[in-house]
Amino acid sequence: VQLQASGGGLVQAGGSLRLSCAASGSIFGINAMGWYRQAPGRQRELVATITSGGTTITADSVKGRFIISRDNAKNTVYLQMNSLKPDDTAVYYCKAVKIGLVEYDYWGQGTLVTVSS
Length: 117
Hints:
The protein is an all-beta fold.
């Protein structure tokens, strides 16, 4: 599975961005896709995930501001980020998960989001 993330950039506080992550390759059996982020000096953390059935999990820190969605026909997951804050500055990584006898995790290359105050 290859994951191509896009949509990062520089935005002022209060602004919006939309991240996209397209999956290709051996995509059959992907159960969930999601976004994680890692700020300088901090551990990678969950932002939001969505299953193939549409069930979502969103971190408390972004709940009400970020919305995750998925287009199964395009094998693409989106993260709409609104009311951005400087604390949202991080590299955002896309992740896909296949669950069979074991769990397989696939990561994209990351896209940088910088929120200026």
